[in-house]
Every structure is written in C-alpha cells, then in structure tokens.
Amino acid sequence: MKHIDQEFCLPFDKENPEFWMRIEHLGRYVFAADYARKIGAKSVLDVACSNGYGCRQMAGSGAQILGIDYNASLIDSATALSNAAQITNAAFRCADLNTDPLSDIPTPDLITCFDTLEHLESPADFLSKLSGMQTKNGTLLLS
Questions:
Q1: Can you give the pTM of this predicted structure?
Q2: At 66, which helix (H) or strand (E)?
Q3: Which whole-number Å values give the CA distances from 97 to 3, 64, 73, 102, in the listed order?
C-alpha cells in the first residue's frame, strides 16, 4: 500500500499561522451542515474526517453523522472530543480508503469528502465506490 500522508488542517489550531486556510476548511463544513439541514439529511458520511471537527460542526444539522479516517489516533481523538461536547449523533471508525470496501456503511443521504482524493492510490475507483454508496437522491460534496 502506498503511504498515506497525514496532511490535514485543524481550523481551531491557534498555533497554525495559515488563518485563511483554517477558515476555508471550516467553511466547507459550515456549508455542509447548512446543506444537510436544507435537504433534511438523515445520515451523513464524512470521509477522511481527521479529528472529527467537521462531524461536530455537521452534528448540529440533526443528521446521524459517521466520520471515517485511516488514522486510529485521530479517530480516538474525534470520539473523545465528541463525547466531551456531548454530541450523541456522531460516530467514528477507522477505514483505509484504498482497500476497505465500505460496504457495511449504511447508505448516506450526504457524503462529504474534502481534500482527500489526492492522497489515494486510485481516486477514480474511490469516487465510483462513493457514488455506489449514496441514496438515489444523495449528494456528494467534494473538494
């Protein structure tokens, strides 16, 4: 398997001098949360969720959120931070996007996949996998 780098941006990291990049990353999730509310999404899958900051943002939409990431430490952090914030509609699990079929994930109404494709061995295969997972009228928000 090709090495997957750990490039990610945490918008609330005050030590990160890249203010506009932090705002851009958070803005995607603010948009996604608003969109989930607008379409009445019951379930959202956040692909490459990092420490779950986007899932916590989208949890306010009322949808059931599932965040996946290959990094077990980030998944542990996502779970702990969501528990500390008393967020009950977000769950997290490890998944290797290059090899995991993701076939056991319930069909989401909305999938978010931000800044991920460039880190995968076969982005086209992964996009095909995601399109097969969605509900008939499901939406994929991608960057």
A1: 0.86
A2: strand 64-69
A3: 12, 21, 16, 8
